[in-house]
Amino acid sequence: MSQVCSVHEHKMALSRALHCSSLLIAALLLIFPSSAALSHAIFIFGDSLVDAGNNDYLVTLSKANAPPYGVDFAFSGGKPTGRFTNGMTIADILGEALGQRSFPPPYLAPNSSAAMTNSGINYASGSSGIFDLMRPIGRVPLGQQISYFEKTRAQILENMEEEAASDFFKTALFIVAAGSNDILEYLSPSVPFFGREKPDPSYFQDVLVSNLTFYLKVPPISPYCSFVSLALCLQLTSIFFPSIKRLNELGARKFVVSDVGPLGCIPYVRALEFMPTGECSASANRVTEGYNKKLKRMVEKMNQEMGPES
């Protein structure tokens, strides 16, 4: 699958699309047993890799509502749908492979509520990140996406018995594909929310993984303290964010968590580093590789702690 790419985050090469595709399928095989039943519902969170049109309903420069986006998307007759690709997203491909008959609609679309119990909902937003403090353009950061899911869950509970709703969420699939934009911002020459100087790459990776872990399992760190003492962040989180629910607490049991592709090979980063034709930025790829290794360890740890039916 090739991706039609535009500004900043969306300059993803074909190699990244294939990398993420194989990763998602591999992750699916690892995180829940093959004998487990999967409902038709898939709930999707992340950035432009899985955005199905939410940004079409925002005032933003980050949109995919014009050709050639969607040119190979048979379900729309070749018209743009807000997907940052010429055809299906990774989440679409995965859902189709699992037998899903329709794609989860974007949450911000007017008709999304009517379809949510049949196919799930897509909350992903192009240009979004794990950290809430990203560039000042319209997007829905990961924390807000999860807040939207809380509203969806409340609607479902109004129309289902509690036990049926619990089973519904246990068998649904939760796809999370985020982190690329956070790393791209880190690699950029000037990033407002870092302050006077950027943190060490290893520390940045740790905090990024920690924030994602909190979104999946425990309340998220406030974006305003992402790069100060982690202990202080946890303390502030417990004081100021007691109402933020975890996806796991909200009933999610089956996750597909995507890592980040080789960002050192995309045109934007190669231009920043003045890389010769055909060469990638080794330093940028080391940042993504370090993050991916730590993310993998986090997922493995969560599997052990949460168990198959936690």
TrEMBL record:
<dbReference type="InterPro" id="IPR036514">
    <property type="entry name" value="SGNH_hydro_sf"/>
</dbReference>
<dbReference type="GO" id="GO:0016042">
    <property type="term" value="P:lipid catabolic process"/>
</dbReference>
<dbReference type="InterPro" id="IPR008265">
    <property type="entry name" value="Lipase_GDSL_AS"/>
</dbReference>
<keyword id="KW-0442">Lipid degradation</keyword>
<dbReference type="InterPro" id="IPR035669">
    <property type="entry name" value="SGNH_plant_lipase-like"/>
</dbReference>
<keyword id="KW-0443">Lipid metabolism</keyword>
<keyword id="KW-0378">Hydrolase</keyword>
<dbReference type="Pfam" id="PF00657">
    <property type="entry name" value="Lipase_GDSL"/>
</dbReference>
<protein>
    <recommendedName>
        <fullName>GDSL esterase/lipase</fullName>
    </recommendedName>
</protein>
<dbReference type="GO" id="GO:0016298">
    <property type="term" value="F:lipase activity"/>
</dbReference>
<dbReference type="InterPro" id="IPR001087">
    <property type="entry name" value="GDSL"/>
</dbReference>
<comment type="similarity">
    <text>Belongs to the 'GDSL' lipolytic enzyme family.</text>
</comment>
<dbReference type="InterPro" id="IPR051058">
    <property type="entry name" value="GDSL_Est/Lipase"/>
</dbReference>
